[in-house]
Amino acid sequence: MYNKIIKRILDIMIAFLSLIILAGIILMISLLIKITSKGKVLYRQKRVGKNKKEFYILKFRTMSSAAPKDVPTHLLENPDQYITRIGKLLRKTSLDELPQLVNILKGDMSLVGPRPALWNQFDLIKERDRYGANDVRPGLTGWAQINGRDEVPIPLKVRYDSEYIQKMSFLFDLTCMSKTVVCVVKHEGVREGALEGGTESKYENGIDYLS
User: Fold this and answer.
1) In contact, 7 and 110? CB cutoff 8 Å
2) Is the torsion defined by CA of 10, 14, 15, 17 positive or negative?
3) Per-residue pLDDT reduced to its tens digit, 151-193
4) Could you state, in order of their start, the residue ranges of all structural domains in the chain?
5) pTM
6) Is the separation of the CB atoms in 73 and 191 below 8 Å?
7) Residues contacting residue 85 through CB under 8 Å, at least 6 positions apart
8) Is 44 helix (H, G, I), strand (E, B) or coil?
9) How far is residue 145's CA from residue 154's CA, in Å, rounded to a whole number?
C-alpha cells in the first residue's frame, strides 16, 4: 500500500509545498547563476529511471560550459577549473539539487530511492538489475547517499540500494530524509575530483563513463 500509493502521494505533496516555500530561494539562485556565469540556469542530464526508462534530471548549473559531459564530478582530474563561484556554494550545500523537485512532481523521481544512474553507467545499471533497484523510482536522496555518497564504491552502493528496497517504508524514508539533512549540514561524503595517485579514473569499478 505504502510503496504503490502512499509514497507517490507524499512525494507530490511534499515536492509541491517545497517549491512554494522555497520559491524565493530558487529565484535568487537562478539570478545569481545568470549574473555570475555564461550559460543556462538549469543543467539537464540523461539519467536512468524506473524500469530503466531514461529521463532528464534537472539541476542548477554549477559548472562552466567547457566541463566534460556525462562524467561524474568526483572522477574529474581537476574539477575546480570547471566549477563556478556560485557553483561551489550550491554543491557544498546541495542546493543545486532543488530543481529535482520538478522531476518528483513529473513522476521521474521520488523523494527517497536509489540515486538515478547516468545513462552510460552500464555496469551499475546491470548490477542494480540483480537487486530490483531499477524497478523503483530513483530518489532525490537515498540510503547509499547517507552512507557515504561519492565515497561509496559501486558494489557497496548497490548493496545499500538493495537494503533500501527491502526496508522501504514510511518510517525508513523518514529516517533517510532526516539523516540527509545531517549529512548536508556536515558536508559528509562529498568529494570533488579523482583521488591523487591514479587510484581512480574514468573506469572506476569497471564502469566506462563515456564522455
Assistant:
1) yes
2) positive
3) 678 889 999 999 999 999 999 999 999 999 988 887 665 555 4
4) 2-206
5) 0.82
6) no
7) 36, 37
8) strand
9) 12
